[in-house]
Amino acid sequence: MKPTRAHFIFFYTFFTLTILPIYPYLLWLKRENKTGRIGEIRKSWLRLGLFIVGYRYKIIDFASNSTLQSISLPSPVIVCANHRSALDVAILIACLPADYCFMAKAELLQTPIISIFLKTIDIPVYRADKQASMRASIAAIQVLKSGRGLVIFPEGGIADNAGILEPFTQGAALIAFKTNTPILPISLPDCNSLMPDAKNSSKAGDIRLILHQLLSPKSDLAQQNEQLYDSILAGLLKYGYR
Q: pLDDT tens digits for 105-125?
């Protein structure tokens, strides 16, 4: 079955209507600086919502090809994954610990539902402004020092007409080195086929998260990036990127 406009409308209508009743509560939590509770609500909301709109996920260990019940992480780590769909973000939020912080493009601040999370528990990145990008990196370092985990898409966003995997920026490698934090590569081979970016269509289906071995931080950022890239690419190729 191909992605359809009808399922896409169902997806966004469901998540919009279900967030509205708790939106005032989220605003109150924001004013009270209760970021931990906001993270818990977001995770529960997405886990239940993804199930209702037809998504099931399977966590797979790349080395052993075995299925895992959950993602168990030494805290904190930097999670890095490929990024071709909005579904990538949703499934990672649903599966990672609730206190994990996402680095996301600042343009999403214009989206009301997403902006409340981006203004509280996540970090907006102004990609065209070098000084603002540097402030985002400093904020990311503080997040890791506070004991929370971090999620970075090292391709730097969803590229137009992109191939299976675009070259990585060095942001994740640099933050890992500066904070001595290991990196967890995750391959997401299915999200692009279930919800292609900019197509305004989607379909229900199974989502696999392929977990690789933790990578120790390196001072050689190019070598770190190559190791990270090769890990994620290997998962996409082995499990059939769609």
A: 888 878 777 888 988 899 988
Single out the residue of 196, 189, 186, 183 nearest to residue 237, CA to CA.
Answer: 189
Q: Are 38 and 117 in contact (CB under 8 A)?
A: yes
Quote the pTM value.
0.94
User: Which residues touch 123 (CB under 8 Å, ≥6 apart)?
Assistant: 101, 102, 103, 104, 136, 139, 140, 143
CB atoms within 10 A of CB 88: 24
CA 60 – CA 181 distance, rounded (Å): 23
* Chain CA centroid to CA 54, Å: 19
| Per-residue pLDDT tens over the stretch 127-182 | 777 888 889 999 999 999 999 999 999 998 886 666 789 999 999 999 999 999 99
Question: How far, in Å, CA of 75 to CA of 179, rounded?
Answer: 13
